[in-house]
Design a protein that fits this description.
This protein has a domain at 10-73: Winged helix-like DNA-binding domain superfamily/Winged helix DNA-binding domain (Arc Repressor Mutant, subunit A). The chain is 51% helix and 11% strand. It has helices spanning 10-13, 17-28, 33-37, 44-56, 78-104, 121-124; strands at 31-32, 60-65, 68-73. The longest helix is centred in the last third of the chain and has 27 residues, at 78-104. Keywords: DNA-binding.
Amino acid sequence: MSAPSPKHDVFQAIADPTRRRLLQLLGDKDMAVTVLSGHFPISRTAVSKHLRILSDAGLVREQKVGRETRYSLQPEPLLELKRWLAYYERFWDNKLTVLRQFVEADDPEPLRPKGPRLVDAGKESGQ
């Protein structure tokens, strides 16, 4: 029997900027929700809801320490995101290579937009 699939996937979990910031904070050290909520202009309950989504996606783990619950980053699910982004890196790398070649060229041809040239409407109509 396989492990149950998470309620939220990694892409859904990181779609929200608050959750991305929570992951950054937890990258440094484990923290309780009271400490985490001090970094945001939202309620502790709202931060807890964001942590629940991250937990459902497998990105954070809860651990009881005395009377408080501490959260820790679990980066393994981010590998799925890394693999997905790796596919698109080749497009970025290609564009950067072309830009570098243009900048480093001895006598670069001036950049001119392709297609028809846009002319001020007033000049075209003789105004």
